Amino acid sequence: MSKHVTHGYHLVKGKSNHAMEDYVFADFKQADDNELGLFAIFDGHLSHDIPDYLRSHLFDNILKEPDFWTEPENAIRRAYRITNTTILEKAVDLGKGGSTAVTVILINCQKLVVANVGDSRAVICKNGVAKQLSVDHEPSKEREIIENRGGFVSNFPGDVPRVDGQLAVARAFGDKSLKEHLTSEPDVTMEIIDDDTEFVILASDGIWKVLSNQEAVDCIKHIKDARSAAKHLTEEALARKSSDDISCIVVRFR
C-alpha cells in the first residue's frame, strides 16, 4: 500500500486559553488478507480527554464488529453507538464536554468508508474537483430531530445556532448534559478509489470556517508531498484568520 498511498498531517493550537483539543489518527494496518488505511480527526469541545479516548479506541471498536467486512456501514454505526455509550459511562473519568469525529477507512487501496458526527469534514479531490464525503451536522439543519428529542435550537447567546443554546453541532460523542437531545449516529458513505482520485483531505472546522471545499483542494493540488500539503493548508487557514484549533490530514494517491 505504501507504494500507492502517502499521507501527512499538521496541527496548530488555536487562540483560545484552553489546551489543544484536536487529535489526529493516521495508521496502516494489515487485517487478515486486507490492507487498511485508518485516518481520523477528533475535534473536542470543553474536553481533550474525550477526543484522546476516541483516538485510542474508536477504530478498534469498528474493526471488532463481526460484520465489518460484509456490512461496514452497519458495523460503523454500531461501533459509534457503543463507543459513545462507553464515553457517557466514563463521564466521571473523562469529564464533561465532547468531540466531533470524521473517520476514513481505506480498504485495499480500492474503497473508502467515511463516517462522521459533527462538523469535522472529509473532502476528496478527483481530477481537480472537490467533493464532500461527510455531512456537516448543524443544529439549524437538524432542528426538528433535536426538538423531537425534547431539546431546542437557539441563536442566543451569540449568532450561531446551538443545541439548547450550548453546542454548535447537532451530533457528537459525549456531552452528557445534552445526551437526551444529542445523537452520536454517524452519516456513513462509500467512495471508490479510481484513476481520477488524487487526494483526500480530513480536517477540523478550523479549516472549513475559512476555506470552501474547492478552495482547500486548489490550495494544495500542486503539492505532491502529503505532509507539506497538510502544513500549507493549515498555514492558509491561519492567513485567513482562523482562530480555532486546526488539524488536517492529507492522503495522497498515485
TrEMBL record:
The cofactor(s) it depends on are: Mg(2+); Mn(2+)
Q: What terms describe the molecular function in GO for this protein?
A: metal ion binding; protein serine/threonine phosphatase activity
Keyword Cytoplasm annotated: no
Coiled-coil ranges per UniProt: none
User: SUPFAM superfamilies attached here?
Assistant: PP2C-like
Q: Which UniProt keywords apply?
A: Hydrolase, Magnesium, Manganese, Metal-binding, Protein phosphatase
- Can you name this protein? protein-serine/threonine phosphatase
The record's annotation in Gene3D superfamilies points to: PPM-type phosphatase domain (3.60.40.10)
Broadest EC class assigned to this enzyme: hydrolase
Q: Which InterPro entries match?
A: PP2C, PPM-type-like_dom_sf, PPM-type_phosphatase-like_dom
The PPM-type phosphatase domain covers which part of the protein?
A: 6-253
Please tell me the species this chain comes from: Ilex paraguariensis
* PROSITE patterns for the chain: PPM_2 (PS51746)
* Pfam families the UniProt entry points to: PP2C (PF00481)
The record lists the catalysed reaction(s) as:
O-phospho-L-threonyl-[protein] + H2O = L-threonyl-[protein] + phosphate; O-phospho-L-seryl-[protein] + H2O = L-seryl-[protein] + phosphate
Q: Does the keyword Manganese apply?
A: yes
Give the matching CDD domains.
PP2Cc
Question: Which family does the UniProt entry place this protein in?
Answer: Belongs to the PP2C family.
Q: What is its EC number?
A: 3.1.3.16
